[in-house]
Amino acid sequence: MTKLGTPGPDQGVSGVPAVPPPPAPPTAGRRPEAVARIGLYGLLAANAAAVAVFFVRAGFGVNALLLLGRLTGLYAALLMAFQLLLVARLPWLDRRIGMDRLTLWHRWTGFGLLWTLLGHAVFITFGYAEMSSMDPVDQLVDLAGTVEGVLRAVVALALILVVGAVSARRARRRLAYETWHFVHLYTYVAVVLAFTHQVAAGSTFTASPAATAYWYGLWGAALAAVFAGRLVLPLWRNRRHRLRVTAVVPENDQVVSVHITGRDLDRLPARAGQFFLWRFLTKDRWWQANPFSLSAAPDGRTLRLTVKAAGDGSAALRHLEPGTRVFAEGPYGAFTALRRTRPDVLLIAGGVGVTPIRALLEELHGHAVVLYRVNTEADAVLHDELRELAHAKGAELHLVTGPSVPDRLAPGELSRLVPDLTDRDVYVCGPPGMTAAVLRGLRELGVPRRQIHHERFSLAG
User: Which residue, 303, 304, 277, is CA-closest to 291?
Assistant: First the structure.
């Protein structure tokens, strides 16, 4: 283990322009993440209450099973709209909560949606079967053939079941992201079918002009959020900035840095610690999007990502030609200085997880300690830059090397290296196993949860 870095004046680092430090973090008031969470919870609770009010006003002139069917159907419609909001990639939410957490919430909301839709189908079918004395299967066939919109609802439920099956953890691990994503797109077909079913057959939807206006407004807002965040904003930003590769620099046999420039990059709202979904517009890779974080703080002129070859897509980046057009979605992520709560920071990186940590060190103010965990010194990507940056900013840099056992970032080692870590914000980025172990150690050492920041850079759960 090596300790590097000595106090020095704040200055630019070799090859990387100096970035003016952002304002000091607030020491009082609600954190941005908490504000966003409260806002989302409040929005969901307010709409749940509105749905209940419209349900009650529609009356109870049916049997109990049909009442339950109507209620579960209404809340399924609400959850479906809320799911769209969670994956709309709206900048205000993403910068405060992070795509990883929004995606996780979307996943669990999806399972809630699946069960409410199944409940709706079962209660409605058995409720009508009780009234008609028909077999439930025959009753469902009869409803699909005679009631407008029911067949569309059956197809929507089937699509949701398929998407739910491929989203299960075991199935998700076996599928390539592109395959999973293609299947997941059918959710939008299910949304349209479900909404048209609600318009055609929903008694609560037509119970009053206010109810009709509410449901049109809810669905319109959800679909508009997706349209704006997933389509309009990325297209507008890429037309505005016209990104291109300027250089490809090998860092070692497995890691490469890609330098990108474009127009008006000073107007791109990117922060150190964030990532983009990058599409390099070559003949064989234009269709593939990969989440790579920035490995240098944005300076208004260039962007840089540093990638380890972990598959065909990332390995192919070594062969990119300067001038290659780039389509980038983002910036995404809440792994930024916006989450600061304390004057000083501890940055913990593992392997290629050093990329957002290196960018954060460049931007953050206050005293910083950096722990960089690798197997051998040869694996320490961007180590020279970190050393120069630590010297320029008066930070401490500890290069922690050696095999995974014993754990060199165990609680005892952490408290020895950084005795005042409970008084610091802690940013952690590395392999999942290392990150989970470090987070457990930090909690064991009594670091308040609000001071611990981590983010998983991936597209899906």
Answer: 277
